[in-house]
Amino acid sequence: MGKKLYHGAAWYPELWEEDVLRQDIALMQQTGINVVRIGEFAWSNMEPQEGHIDLSFFVKVIGWLSEAGIDTVMCTPTPTPPIWFTHGHPERMYVNEQLQVMGHGSRQHACTNHPYFREKAAIITEHIAQAIGPLPGVIGWQLDNEFKAHVAECLCETCRSQWQQWLEERYGTIEQLNDAWGTQIWSEYYHSFDQVPQPGPAPFLHNSSLKTNYQLFSMEKIAQFADEQAAIIRNYSEAPITHNSSVAFHVDNERLFRNLDFASFDTYATFDNIPGYLINNDLWRNFKRGRDYWIMETSPSFAASLESYAKPHPNGYLKAEAVAAYALGAEGFCYWLWRQQRAGCEQPHGSVISAWGKPTVGYPNVLEVEQARQEIEATILSTRPVQAEVALTYSDRAKAFLKTEPHRKLSHRGLMTDFYGHLLNTGLHRDVVPEGAPLDGYKLLFTPFLPYVSSDYTERALQLVEAGGVWVIGPFTGGRTAEHTVHTDAALGVLERLAGVETVYTFPMEGSGSAGSAFGVNAPLSLWSSVFEPKEAAAVGVLAEGGLAPGLAFITEKQHGKGKIVMLGSLPAGEDGERLLNRLILRYADEAGVNVRSDVTKGTLVAPRRGVDHDVWVVVNMDGAGGSVTLPRGGFDPVTQEHVAPGKLELGRYAHKVIRFNH
To answer: What kind of fold does domain 599-662 have according to CATH?
Structure first.
């Protein structure tokens, strides 16, 4: 990829006549679109009859784009196998949890583990890579589209066979599986691997070990499919490869991106869900550390389908989204989609241009994004995002545990986003890091909603603590083993010994009248919780009278090495709970010596970046209410070419400022 900030859109040239395509390219040039993504749903255009592959149309279109100065991200079309693949072949199709077999249409209707699908996917991928790889202007590849967005774990016969093989490789003997899963319960005991079922229809609930492991199996298999496609493309192209994923999909993103070249995501968070938008940027920046990520899809105005629509963005918000993304480490900011679709299930979806070729309600905002991109590009390209000193651990494997054991419909995504929102509102610069990420350079680590904590993760977290950092464990962390069973030595296993506590009870706090007091705030407590008796730790938060466990601790801290281990056993709720969490975060940020932070009002973002001889703050108002930030010293605005005084800097509605501080 060249050194530029990309401003792009998804485009479907196979759906339109040549005169429309020529019009589109001219309009893209006027709008400032410098990259398009094509091909992801075009398998039937490329291979209308089995074995008859013709890519000349796409070669021609990429040539037109290149002549116009517009680059291409080429996609593999595997989310939509053609009718010749599906018709009369139910054995090749995806089967859901109710054992319903999908028919042709929509997308993701095939089982991606079926050997015939893998064979045909490999053939079309190789043809595309051969024909498209050498073309000028092809700057990247996207595999498939939104793996496991509409479907979860497939329960077809192919998957059953592969699941049982996966279990045998994992456990070695059926006796070890029985022992790990505790299958003597409810007479679930198996005598051979081919007896182990998939988690299909059942009178009540499946064994937790079976349900969670089946999700992990499915996540590994879809990542292996991505690996296969990427390996084929690399034989013919040096352009970097990605996939457009999301925390909403049934994938392990850390595993998925392990063998890809850069990370990208799709987001349709509405304008009033700022944490839901920003958490993706802070997480995707860390899937391929040192490599810029892309926003591959976001709406220029609103998301919609035949059955739903979202609130449109207010004028000005799209520019704030884009500037925040570029500042936080995005190289590309792209829309779904360029020209509104005239047919299909997403006809109403927001676009840049209407089906009849006129600007949409989002178009003026796209022009604002392009103006901002041009203004900040030189500054962004000459700097890199600063690593935060505060890390929040994110795990899609934990998401699998919560899907198996959601209690009262707990959402891992919702829990993590809310917790992230508390961090965001303190003005601390933060990284959201995958479970397996290195923790070097962090001073304050939060590990919430991680039912199983591996020994590898524990070891890395302890190194952070021993060097003087603070590790905040919980809530809802550590109560399960790797096999999704309950510990038998202590409620939270080894964490209790490390934290110097004994968990006296674990129980759901909702409706129990339980409240707690810490940092001068009293707040109701929520979720399934752990309450402690300190052994070698100090009680920091204590349960109040009137609940089930008065006097026991729900927050403890213990010195370890040069740092501290903090246990947060319950989630404070409501406005008072928000104040309590805010005080907890800031207290331990101060104790850990966190310096990468700003005095900024809620709803406004500071993204710090660093160049060779200067630092940059990109400040963006995200909530449309305006805001302010206190500048620690005087700086220079490279956009206006004006000096900026230290002290309070005011920003208007959805406004942004770039401030350069020389070393």
So the answer is: Immunoglobulin-like (2.60.40)
- Residue ranges covered by each domain of the chain: 6-82+134-150+239-383, 390-592, 599-662
Identify whether 297 is a catalytic site residue. Answer: yes
Candidates 38, 35, 118, 133; CA nearest to 78 is: 118
The dihedral through the CA atoms of 501, 505, 511, 514 has a sign that is negative
- Is the pLDDT at 409 greater than 60? The verdict is yes
Could you give the dihedral angle defined by the CA atoms of residues 511, 530, 575 and 551, in that order, rounded to the nearest 10 degrees? 90
C-alpha to C-alpha distances, 540 to 22, 362, 473, 521, 575, nearest whole angstrom: 67, 50, 14, 12, 20
What is the reported pLDDT for 1?
41
Element (H, E) at 560: strand 553-560
* Exposed / middle / buried, residue 654 (Cβ in 10 Å: 0-12, 13-18, 19+): buried
pLDDT tens-place string over residues 544-553: 998 899 999 9
Contact 225, 111 (CB under 8 A): no
Mean pLDDT of 469-478: 98
Q: Is the pTM of this model over 0.90?
A: yes
Sign, Cα dihedral of 494, 498, 502, 507: negative
- The whole-angstrom separation of Cα 54 and Cα 514 is 67
Distance (Å) of CA 482 to CA 274, 408, 510? 33, 22, 27
CA dihedral (588, 593, 594, 595) in degrees, to 10, reads 150
- Closest by CA position to 245, among listed 149, 349, 338: 149
Asked if pLDDT for residue 434 goes beyond 50, the answer is: yes
Considering the segment(s) 6-82+134-150+239-383 as one domain, its CATH architecture is Alpha-Beta Barrel (3.20)
Count of other CB atoms within 10 angstroms of residue 569? 30
Averaged pLDDT of the chain: 97
Q: Which CATH architecture has domain 390-592?
A: 3-Layer(aba) Sandwich (3.40)
Residues in Cβ contact with 561 at an 8 Å cutoff, skipping those fewer than 6 apart: 462, 465, 466, 467, 468
Tell which residue, 147, 88, 146, has the closest CA to residue 112.
147
Contacts of 203 by beta carbon, 8 Å cutoff, 6+ apart: none
Asked if 78 contacts 120 with a C-beta cutoff of 8 angstroms, the reply is no
Beta bridge partners of 656: 620
At residue 495, does pLDDT exceed 80?
yes
Residue of 40, 47, 146, 368 marked catalytic: 146
Angle at 418 between CA 414 and CA 420, to 5 degrees: 115
Residue 41 near residue 80, CB atoms below 8 Å: yes
Structure tokens at 424: 């965001």
Whether the bond into 475 is cis, omega within 30 of 0: yes
Backbone angles phi, psi at 300, to 5 degrees: -70, -10
| Amino acid, res. 327 | A
Is 368 an annotated catalytic residue?
A: no
Residue 455, amino acid: S
Percent of the chain with pLDDT over 90: 98
Catalytic residue among 40, 47, 254, 297: 297
Amino acid 261: pLDDT: 98
- Average pLDDT in the 572-584 region? 97
Residue 635 has pLDDT above 60, yes or no: yes
Rg of the Cα atoms in the chain: 26
Residue at token pair 């770039």: 658
| Beta bridge partner(s), residue 547 | none
